[in-house]
Design goal:
- The complex is a heterodimer of chains A (about 230) and B (about 350).
- Chain A has one domain.
- With about 230 residues, chain A is mainly α.
- Chain A is about 85% helix and about 0% strand.
- The N and C termini of chain A lie far apart (about 95 Å).
- In chain A, α5 packs parallel to α8 and α7 runs antiparallel to α8.
- Chain B is mostly helical and about 350 residues long.
- In chain B, α7 packs antiparallel against α12, α9 runs antiparallel to α12 and α12 crosses α13.
- Classes of the chains: A mainly alpha (about 230), B mainly alpha (about 350).
């Protein structure tokens, strides 16, 4: 009895004394947590960058710059361009490809299609890995729970060999099993928070892109009609 | 063309590595918090162990605590220690005795200066007389008649003077004798007084010695009484311990008997195998754990004994919960044949 009570209850000892499956679950959860945090920071930087670039481009565009010069500048500095800039470049490039005097409706239709295609691609890029964060947020608690249930099962099974059950026999097993749940929650909570935040940000960007596409097609239509 | 170029440029994501470093940093911080934050869990279980057992054994510990009281009684030897102190006091009384002769010696010393003072005035006049006649003899050759007359006169005068001096001397001698007598009387008186004082001192010393002896005897008596009390207490404690040990052995025998009564002996085992078990008990006689510490070599017999131990639950325990400590971990040895 005294030997079990005075057991080392430190964090590392609990992990190292856990059963193999619980340790496996813990390893998976550590990897999941690492990658989810990696994507959290990556998406943070990407979305911040896109919002900054969109603000800058809208500011420049509505100041009334020469569209041809703007298009040339975007193509020349394509590695530092934002999503909205690329949408503009795709639409304006498609618009310029048509010879003067061709059917206006057809020109505007193909321009819109080109912009929509780039928009889809950009949205796909912005929303990439968000689904991973959502998965981590919903699944990792269950993985941790699996490890916990398994650990508790083991600790109760070891109780069966002892006739007189005391809390000291069960406590270490449950403690080490609960670490798996703690790790699962540690991975899930930030992933859920990040997913919700980034999803709303990308939605905001998407509406901005769509409204810009409509406005640009209007501008181009007016320019073609002149 | 331009569109395809733009397409390729889209995956150029900013600061991927920085994101990875930050993710690692977050996990390192988390692990550090877990490791250092959960360390406090080591301590509470120890507190639990202490809390459970300190309250119950108190009844027994009180007789046990009577052992400390002897420690308090040990200060009793401290009053006894004064004995060595009082013993040095015994040699001290003799010291005053040698000191007594000293005052006696000082008495002759005191008279000695007195005698010297008495003698010195006597001698000085002698010298004065011898010196004065010498100048008178020198005047004789100048005027023989006158000298003769003068000498006669002087001789007469001298005779008179000598007579007077003799008388004076006699008087002085008488005075000296008287003084000496007086001195002697005084000395005698002083000696008597000193002797009386010595006697008084000796009496006082004797009284002191007697008092000291009486005090020592009293202390010895007290010490003896204390020792006897201690001995009695020790005897009582020993008796209590004997009772306790008797009780413990009695209940151990009861436990063994109860276990033996439940053993279903496997038939026809060769020799006299012995199985030893280490049994952990709970207060109330419940069995917490049974471990085979030494197998008999026959698994059948070991199992039979183990089953019997579990069957004999609850084991008989003394009603005094304080004695339970003796039964918490029992070593039970069972012989196949008695």
């Amino acid at each position: 009895m005294s030997t079990t009570v005075t057991q080392d209850m430190s964090f590392l000892h609990l992990i190292s004394s856990a059963s193999l499956l619980v340790q496996l679950v813990m390893l998976i959860l550590v990897l999941i947590s690492l990658s989810s945090w990696w994507f959290i920071f990556r998406k943070l930087f990407v979305i911040r960058y896109e919002i900054k670039k969109t603000d800058e481009f809208e500011d420049i565009f509505w100041r009334g710059v020469d569209l041809n010069a703007l298009h040339q500048r975007i193509i020349s500095s394509r590695y530092e361009s934002g999503s909205l800039e690329r949408i503009f470049a795709a639409g304006f490039g498609e618009f310029n490809k048509h010879p003067v005097g061709s059917d206006l409706d057809a020109v505007m239709e193909s321009t819109r299609r080109a912009m929509r295609a780039t928009y889809q691609r950009e949205m796909d890029y912005l929303e990439s890995h968000l689904s991973f964060l959502a998965t981590v947020g919903s699944v990792s608690p269950y993985i941790g729970l699996l490890g916990t249930v398994w650990g508790i099962m083991n600790s109760f099974r070891s109780l069966s060999s002892v006739t007189q059950a005391t809390i000291a026999h069960v406590a270490p097993g449950i403690a080490e099993a609960l670490i798996a749940t703690a790790m699962g929650l540690f991975a899930a909570i930030p992933a859920v928070v990040a997913y919700n935040r980034y999803a709303s940000r990308t939605d905001q960007l998407a509406t901005r892109f769509e409204s810009f596409m409509e406005e640009l097609s209007n501008v181009l239509q007016r320019r073609a009609a002149e | 063309m331009s569109v395809s170029v733009l397409r390729n440029s889209s995956p150029s994501e900013p600061r991927i590595l920085l994101a990875g470093v930050l993710a690692l940093l977050v996990h390192l911080i988390f692990v550090a918090i877990m490791i250092f934050g959960l360390d406090w869990k080591d301590h509470p279980p120890e507190g639990m162990v202490v809390d459970i057992w300190t309250e119950l054994p108190k009844p027994i510990q009180e007789p046990v605590k009577t052992q400390p009281p002897p420690k308090q009684l040990k200060p009793v030897p401290e009053p006894v220690k004064p004995k060595p102190e009082s013993e040095p006091l015994k040699p001290e009384p003799p010291k005053p005795e040698p000191a007594k002769p000293e005052p006696v010696k000082s008495e002759p010393v005191k008279p000695a200066p007195q005698k010297a003072l008495v003698e010195s005035p006597i001698k000085k006049p002698d010298i004065a007389l011898k010196q004065k006649p010498e100048p008178l003899k020198e005047t004789k050759p100048d005027l023989e008649e006158q000298k003769k007359k003068e000498q006669e006169k002087t001789k007469e005068q001298e005779r008179l003077k000598e007579l007077e001096k003799q008388k004076e001397l006699e008087k002085k001698k008488e005075l000296e004798k008287q003084k000496e007598l007086e001195n002697k009387k005084e000395l005698d008186k002083q000696k008597e007084l000193e002797k009386q004082k010595e006697l008084e001192k000796q009496k006082e010393l004797q009284k002191q010695k007697e008092k000291e002896l009486a005090a020592q005897q009293q202390r010895e008596r007290e010490a003896k009484a204390q020792r006897e009390a201690e001995a009695q207490r020790a005897a009582q404690q020993a008796a209590a311990r004997n009772q306790v040990t008797n009780e413990i052995s009695k209940y151990k025998a009861l436990i063994l008997a109860k276990i033996k009564s439940r053993i279903v002996m496997p038939p026809d085992l060769p020799g006299n195998p012995v199985a030893e078990f280490n049994v952990t008990l709970l207060p109330g006689g419940d069995i917490l754990d049974v471990r085979l510490s030494k197998s008999s070599g026959h698994a059948v017999f070991d199992n039979a004994v183990e089953r019997a131990i579990f069957l004999s639950k609850p084991l008989p325990l003394p009603s005094d919960p304080a004695l339970f400590n003796e039964f918490r971990n029992l070593n039970i040895t069972v012989h196949y044949r008695e």
